[in-house]
């Protein structure tokens, strides 16, 4: 007999707050790790160090992206299995995902430690930035395994009704990062290596918080029970593949923007883009937090065939993302200069370029929340193809199309216009996919 879960019984609006609020806070806090690095490096080392961290973004996304593929795919699959009452299958999915995560993380560590300089060249580092980029890659690679397991365990905590643990781990993580950045960068003058150590340690420390409920054999999902089931690898990877595409999209965006700015404005252009990307990342992470928070609610109730509850949580998500987007637009549009100065310091050239771009970039916040929720929703119900389409459109296809066309017409302003352009085109496609894949009506579900 299927054990009841609050995901299928509690009021949807209460669940939204209970699951999305910790997810938003955790997502923002975790995303602040590189932002904190940027603040310390920009103010105590210089804009070249800050630019170096941005060039490393694709490698960072390799770690985070591979973790998210397994974690989100695992969460979606486990949620639907628990909703269908298949507890043993859910445990096997987790055990298989855990083993796969360890293997992938060890491979990434090997690549980062051995091939850090070739990777730095591939990522666009010039002679000025090469050594610092390679150092960051090599150092961060050492933390790939604990970082990855932190994500996996933190996400699984949500589906076993412990969403607050990921938030607690994230709070400890950001405090650790601030303290270590201060000690390693400001006091010990370790520069880019200090930033990488601080980031790796801060992510890893949260591991000890999120693993706690999974050490209890009486928990429906734990690290002791279950067996490796190779038949679950493809469903997990397929369900989470859109998260992999999102990571690739983030890496692609960073790469093509870095190349475009390097060509037009050199290191100063990359530093300006880095400043805006840090600020916009904060807003985007709120949207991802909403999407991640509703994931367990959607997957469980979809598996339970309670489609009315799925509809309700989507409606709440739309209203919240639109409201958040409007607030973020106003903040970036009106206070962009104050925010950019946190990273650019007194560098007037970087400051002027970034402030000008922020007023264009700000329009993307009206649109990206819907696209992120659409993608997360499709992942939660097992329609990975649709989620991949949305992630690919907003982060790869229309980014590349925009960066090729718009700067040739609008010069440097065209680079800033690329993100709003990509979000608008993706929104049109996302609405079409949502209409095409409407949920069964209550009458059909009952039948």
From TrEMBL:
GO terms for biological process: response to antibiotic. InterPro entries: MATE_fam, MATE_MepA-like, MATE_MepA_subfamily, MdtK-like. This is Multidrug export protein MepA. It is found in: Cell membrane. One of its GO terms (cellular component) is plasma membrane. Belongs to the multi antimicrobial extrusion (MATE) (TC 2.A.66.1) family. MepA subfamily. GO terms for molecular function: antiporter activity; xenobiotic transmembrane transporter activity. PANTHER family: MULTIDRUG EXPORT PROTEIN MEPA, SPORULATION PROTEIN YKVU. The chain crosses the membrane at residues 21-42, 62-82, 94-115, 135-153, 165-185, 191-215, 236-257, 269-295, 316-335, 360-381, 388-409, 415-434. Keywords: Antibiotic resistance, Cell membrane, Membrane, Transmembrane, Transmembrane helix, Transport. It is a multi-pass membrane protein. It comes from Romboutsia weinsteinii.
